[in-house]
Design a protein that fits this description.
Layout (H helix, E strand, L loop, with lengths): L2 H22 L3 H21 L3 H26 L3 H6 L5 H24 L21 H9 L4 H22 L11 H5 L3 H4 L4 E5 L6 E5 L1
Helix pairs in contact: 1-2, 2-3
Length: about 220
C-alpha cells in the first residue's frame, strides 16, 4: 500500500466521522462546523486525485461562502432545537424502515460487487495515472465544460438564474405596514412642498415683551 493510499483511507475515515457529526450534533452551529470539517477533508481527497481546481473551489465557495451563510441563517433565526426534537419521534416509525432499506441497498451493492467484478455493469476503475508537472487541471476542466458539456452547463446556469429571480420575487411580496420609497414622488418634489415659512411670537428674556418675527 502506497503512501497516497494511506492518506486516502485516513482522510476518508475522518470524512465519515465528520459526516456522522453533522447529523448527530445537538447544536445547529456545531453541526455546521462539522460540515465545514467534512468539506476540508473532501478537498484533501480531491487534492490526492490531482483535482486541485475542484479542491480550491470546494473550500472557497462552500466553506468561504455557503457555510458562512448557513451560520448567519442559523444564528439569526434562533431555531428552538427543543421544539424540533419534541416532534421527532412522531416520524420515527417512517424514518427507521427507510434508513434500513437504504443500508440494505448499499450493503447488497457492495456484496454483489465483491462477488463479481463485472456485476451490475460496473467494472473496476484503475488508479488514475500521474500527470506531468506542467499539467493544468483548470485548463482541462474548462475545455470539457465549454466543448463537450457546453449545453448542460448553459442549462444549469439558466436553472440557477431562474431560481435566483424566483427567490427575489418571493421576498418582494407586499406586506402590511411596510414603508417603501416612491422614487417618482421624490424626483418631482418642489421646494414649497418641503419648506414652510411661519410667523412665531418671540419673547425677549429681559423685558418679557412679545416681538413678531419669522423663522
Amino acid at each position: 500500500m502506497s503512501f497516497t493510499e494511506i492518506l486516502f483511507y485516513v482522510f476518508s475515515a475522518v470524512l465519515v466521522v465528520s459526516a456522522l457529526g453533522v447529523i448527530t450534533a445537538r447544536n445547529p452551529v456545531y453541526s455546521a462546523l462539522w460540515l465545514v470539517f467534512a468539506f476540508f477533508n473532501s478537498a484533501i481527497i480531491w487534492m490526492l486525485l490531482e483535482a486541485e481546481f475542484l479542491a480550491i473551489i470546494l473550500i472557497l465557495v462552500y466553506v468561504g461562502a455557503v457555510m458562512v451563510l448557513f451560520l448567519f441563517v442559523v444564528m439569526m433565526l434562533d431555531i428552538k432545537v427543543e421544539e424540533l426534537r419534541a416532534g421527532f419521534t412522531r416520524y420515527a416509525w417512517l424514518g427507521l424502515p427507510i434508513a434500513l432499506l437504504v443500508i440494505g441497498e448499499i450493503g447488497s451493492v457492495v456484496w454483489v460487487k465483491s462477488q463479481d467484478d463485472k456485476a451490475l455493469g460496473l467494472s473496476s476503475v484503475a488508479s488514475p495515472a500521474a500527470y506531468a508537472a506542467d499539467y493544468s487541471n483548470t485548463k482541462a476542466l474548462g475545455q470539457l465544460l465549454y466543448t463537450e458539456y457546453l449545453y448542460p452547463l448553459q442549462l444549469a446556469a439558466s436553472i440557477l438564474l431562474i431560481a435566483i429571480v424566483a427567490a427575489i420575487v418571493l421576498t418582494m411580496r407586499k406586506r402590511s405596514g411596510q414603508k417603501v420609497q416612491d422614487i417618482g414622488a421624490q424626483i418631482s418634489v418642489k421646494a414649497k412642498d418641503r419648506v414652510r415659512i411661519v410667523k412665531v411670537a418671540a419673547v425677549q428674556p429681559e423685558t418679557g415683551n412679545t416681538v413678531e418675527g419669522q423663522s
